[in-house]
Amino acid sequence: MGNYRELNQACEEHFLSFAPLNQKISSDPVHDPSKQGIDYLYYIPEEKGVRILENGDVEFCFYAPQAQTVEVAGIGGAMGTERHALHKGQDGYWRAVVPGIPPGFHLHKYYVDGVQLLNKLAPIGYGTFAPNNIFEKPDEHSDFYYIKDVPHGDVRMELYRSSVNGRLKCCYVYTPPGYDASDKRYPVVYLQHGATENEIGWVWHAKVNFILDNLLAEGNCKEMLVVMNCGYGFVGEESPVFLPGDFDRELAEDCVPFIDAKYRTLANRDGRAVAGLSLGSAQAFYAALKHRDLYASLGMFSGGLPLVRADYDYSAFFEDADRVNSNFRLLYLGMGEQESWCENTRQVCRELDQKGIRYKFFSCPGFHEWDVWKRCFHDFAQVVFKEGK
Fold it and tell me: Which residue in 21, 79, 329, 381 is a FRET match for 32, CA 20 to 30 A apart?
């Protein structure tokens, strides 16, 4: 286990938190006669909603002085869904120590008298179409996404109009350190989120910008732009079963030209990759296969390689190894070893081997959760746009 005395700042930075959480304003103002008699409020330490203890156990804390019961539970995956009872102290704080929670990224829920509530003492992120509490339990292999004293790139928020549904769409754009001072052109990864999430996830949960800052400082990846889009392209009363609207067309016809016009990109297929997690991996697959003139590299995290769905069938395309190999500089498959389709994907890889199709497979311990997708992107970034591919 890692040393939990001081978590890296990245472990507590999420959608609604960047500064330390364990501070509150005192209810007793200080009277200072030397400053015209003004009463001053001041900060005092607050309890932390989640603490990783030195032995690796996790202590949860919730302030609810009037409550009768308080419980905490994961939403599945590594933490499971079992509810753990917290115990009330005389100070109105409820606490419990839960052993056995593996390292990783954990969305979790609190129930106060049976009602699900957010814990303002713990980091808050976004997932399952709602704000949720989060904690990160790092291990000795987690420092690849830590904030370090290295040159840092920027994350910029851009707006472009979708011709699919007429809405203004938001995308986040990572630019590497030194982008503004340079006249170089850069390759671009178009990186998609999963179902029930949106474009903020790759920044706030996966720390894509810190991952790339660190890889670049180590000399372990190419300089690149990363564009993170909201992947929903709903139109009117449309009720898509899986893929939410005609997003691949929006990406190809609206976002890619917008990025090429505003940023110094390598505006050709060899300079573009499309990747994503879960639902985003299916969108990436669809985009790469339908628009082979735009993207030369494809990354699929926690998605397998679904050659056939109700609305498409690319099985014939993947029977021709020469055609696949000539179309893709990189075909990348990554996932967690505890995901239900991991073994099926390994079988797909064995079939690709038999056909002579080039690909890269990556797996790591973990479930269908952000700690797996962080590690997938960390590995993917080191091989995408690699020379000689």
Answer: 21
